[in-house]
C-alpha cells in the first residue's frame, strides 16, 4: 500500500468504515483509531508520510552502509537504522584492517565478487580522495600439501590471477622478517592487500549522507512487522514504514529473523597488535600474510604507521550471545597465547610486547557461505548475513547487489550459491 492510499484515509466519509478497517489492519502498528473528525484522519496520513521510506536498512555496518550508499546513488529515499554508531567496536567491522585476496580458496564465485569488490573500492577511493586500500600484496604460506593452498592455486589458474610461487629460502630472502621451515611453500599475490575497514565504512557513510540518505544511529529496532506490500519498523522513539526492507544486522540477524530459524552462529574472535622495532616488519618491507598450517590458520598485517604487527587466528572461536559481547581480550589465555606462539615460530622478531588486543564477532553459516536473498515469504524483504568471517572485502559489491535486488528485483551477479533455501540451511 502506498502513502497515497493512506492519504485517502483523511478523505473518506465516516460511513466508509470497511476501508478504514482495511487500512488499520494493513498497518496495525499505526495504532490508528477510527476518526470522529476528518482532521484526525489527515493527521495520521501526514504522520505516515513523514515516516515512510522506499527502503529501510536494518543494520548500517559494512554491508548495510554500502547498500545505503548505492541506493542513494540511484535516488532511492532510504533510512538506515543501527543500534550503535558505525563504525563501532561492537560487531564485526572494527580492528583497522582487513585482508582482500583475489585468488580465494572458497571457490570461483567468490573470485568474481572479489575482483568486482576491488574495482568498487578503487572507485570509492577516487570519489572520496581517501586512502582505503593499501597494496601490500598478500603472501600465502603453507605446507606443500594443503587444501587451502590447492584451492587458491586453482582459483588463480582459472581466472589468470598473478600468483608467484616462492620456496622457503626465497621468502626469507625477500622478506627477512619471516622464519619459514624448508618444507613450506609460499604464493605471493601482488595485486591484493589491505583494506582500511573503518575508513571504508566512514567513506560510504559520508557519501551516502551527501546524497540524502537518512541515518539513525544508536537506535535499536524493537520489532518489524512484514505485510504483503511493505513493513512496519518500530524503535523506542518512532514507527517507520517502508515499501522494502534490507536486513543485514550482523550477529543479530538470527534474532531479527527468529521466525525463520536460520542456522546462524555468532562466535567470538580475537586479534592483537605486537611491538616490533625492526623496519623489516613495517610496510612496505613486509606484506600481509596468511598461514595455513596443519591444524591452525593465522593471518596478519605489517606494521602500518606504527600500529604494530597485527595477527589473528582464523580457526579459533567461542560461541557468543551478541547481546553479551564485550571487549574482553585476554579473558582466555589463548587470546594472546596463540598469537604469540605463532609469531615466535614464524616472525620471531615481531613477538614483542602486546600493544593492544581486540575481540570481535563473526556470524557463521553451516557451510561458511553467505546468505544474500529475498525473504522466503516476503519478496520485498532482502536478507544479507552469515558472512562467516570472510565478508568484509566483499561488502562493496554486496551493497551494490542489494541495491539491484531492491531496484530491479534481480542482480547482474551470480548469487545462487547464497540462496536462503539451499540444503545447508535446512529451512523448513
Amino acid at each position: 500500500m502506498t502513502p497515497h492510499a493512506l492519504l485517502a484515509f483523511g478523505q473518506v466519509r465516516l460511513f466508509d468504515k470497511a476501508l478504514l478497517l482495511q487500512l488499520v489492519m494493513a498497518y496495525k502498528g499505526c495504532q490508528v483509531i477510527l476518526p470522529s473528525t476528518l482532521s484526525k484522519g489527515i493527521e495520521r496520513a501526514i504522520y505516515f508520510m513523514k515516516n515512510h521510506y522506499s527502503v529501510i536498512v536494518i543494520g548500517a555496518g559494512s554491508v548495510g552502509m554500502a547498500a545505503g550508499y548505492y541506493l542513494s546513488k540511484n535516488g532511492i529515499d532510504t533510512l538506515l537504522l543501527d543500534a550503535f554508531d558505525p563504525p563501532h567496536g561492537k560487531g564485526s567491522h572494527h580492528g583497522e584492517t582487513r585482508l582482500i585476496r583475489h585468488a580465494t580458496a572458497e571457490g570461483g564465485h567468490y573470485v568474481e565478487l572479489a575482483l568486482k569488490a576491488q574495482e568498487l573500492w578503487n572507485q570509492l577511493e577516487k570519489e572520496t580522495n581517501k586512502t582505503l586500500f593499501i597494496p601490500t600484496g598478500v603472501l600465502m604460506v603453507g605446507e606443500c600439501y594443503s587444501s587451502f593452498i590447492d584451492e587458491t592455486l586453482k582459483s588463480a589458474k582459472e581466472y589468470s590471477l598473478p600468483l608467484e610461487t616462492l620456496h622457503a629460502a626465497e621468502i626469507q630472502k625477500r622478506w627477512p622478517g619471516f622464519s619459514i621451515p624448508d618444507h613450506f611453500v609460499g604464493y605471493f599475490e601482488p595485486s591484493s592487500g589491505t583494506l582500511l575497514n573503518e575508513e571504508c565504512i566512514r567513506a560510504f557513510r559520508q557519501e551516502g549522507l551527501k546524497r540524502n540518505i537518512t541515518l539513525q544511529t544508536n537506535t535499536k529496532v524493537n520489532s518489524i512487522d512484514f505485510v504483503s506490500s511493505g513493513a512496519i519498523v518500530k524503535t523506542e522513539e518512532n514507527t517507520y514504514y517502508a515499501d522494502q526492507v534490507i536486513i543485514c544486522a550482523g550477529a543479530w540477524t538470527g534474532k531479527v529473523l527468529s521466525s525463520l530459524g536460520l542456522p546462524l552462529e555468532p562466535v567470538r574472535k580475537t586479534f592483537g597488535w605486537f611491538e616490533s622495532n625492526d623496519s623489516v616488519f613495517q610496510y612496505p618491507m613486509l606484506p600481509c600474510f596468511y598461514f595455513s598450517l596443519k591444524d591452525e590458520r593465522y593471518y596478519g598485517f605489517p606494521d602500518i604507521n606504527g600500529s604494530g604487527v597485527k595477527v589473528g587466528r582464523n580457526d579459533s572461536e567461542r560461541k557468543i550471545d551478541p547481546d553479551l559481547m564485550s571487549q574482553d581480550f585476554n579473558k582466555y589465555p589463548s587470546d594472546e597465547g596463540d598469537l604469540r606462539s605463532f609469531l615466535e615460530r614464524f616472525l620471531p622478531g615481531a613477538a614483542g610486547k602486546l600493544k593492544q588486543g581486540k575481540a570481535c564477532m563473526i556470524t557463521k553459516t553451516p557451510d561458511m557461505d553467505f546468505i544474500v536473498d529475498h525473504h522466503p515469504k516476503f519478496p520485498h524483504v532482502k536478507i544479507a548475513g552469515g558472512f562467516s568471517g570472510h565478508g568484509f572485502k566483499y561488502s562493496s559489491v554486496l551493497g551494490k547487489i542489494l541495491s539491484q535486488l531492491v531496484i530491479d528485483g534481480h542482480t547482474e551477479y551470480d548469487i545462487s550459491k547464497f540462496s536462503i533455501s539451499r540444503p545447508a540451511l535446512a529451512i523448513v
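Residues 1-21 have pLDDT under 50 and may be disordered. The first strand starts at residue 52 and ends at 58.
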